[in-house]
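Q: Could you fold this chain for me?
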Amino acid sequence: MATVRLEHIIEPERFTDYITQNVMQRTALVQSGIAAGNSVIADQLRAGAHSFTVPGWLDLSDDEANIASDDPDQHSSPRGLGSFRQVIRKAFLHGSWSTMNLASEISGDDPMARIQQRVQAYWDRQIQKRLIASLSGILAQNLEDDAGDMVLSTTDAFSAAGVIDAAGTLGDRMDDLVAVAMHSDTYRRALKSDLIDFIPDSEGSLSLPTFRGLAVIQDDSMPKDGDDYTTVLFGAGAVGYAVAAPRTADGTEVESIPSAGNGGGQQVLHSRLNVAIHPAGFSWTEDSVSGESPTIGELKDKDNWTRPVERKAVPLVFYRHQL
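A: Sure. Below is the predicted structure, expressed as structure tokens.
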């Protein structure tokens, strides 16, 4: 029996569309409201350049209002409106997986078909890792440059009171928070302390964990340093992101190498995505990037981030605690 070849079961263009659509729809970050698909970012991903700039307006200042008078020679002095810009960095990413034809023949199975099935999950995890790395970078930047005004650090164990105090760094905007992301160790402690409630999803088929009304996401890649954990609280749309197929290269490409394996043949599946993940209120500085796109490690580098807006304009809170 002839081996089923990848080109027989996959249409590259359709497979690429499937990947980009599902990455935007299936990841828990989107479902929780933490990350919001952004059409501006999506459009820019298909343009040239490593990064692009999104301008924005600051709020009106809170200077005291003028006291009106009846003096015709007394004139008011109009105030201006400030602006800021956010530089958003693109990442041009690639993954590839291969299998030898002889291995398929001998095993009686098709390992490439399994690879195809798992590409989606791979990109989901990569995007989540890049988001968490970006959060680590802006946390480090905030501690050094903005006196940690987005952070509550304590040696106490995770608690409801601690979450409230952390949320308080947003002042009267604390009610804007909609979700909390935590390490599974923290989640287990919260469960044991009866801090987690479960509500049915829209279809009534699943129970979703919540913490004081906040959607809960547990992920073991959340920052942990020994006994110190970082839990992050998010407002809606705290992170803007988009994924897109490359503009020039094929998003999915099937490579056949007939001479490999002394003529037995090799199949390689290439998958490419352009990605941009950007925490609202921050700007990318490109201070320390060695390649054409920032690595996960470089996203964690505080020197690659700056915050051009006031604290309340950033719907993010960092709660550093122990168990």
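A (continued): The chain has nine helices and 17 strands.
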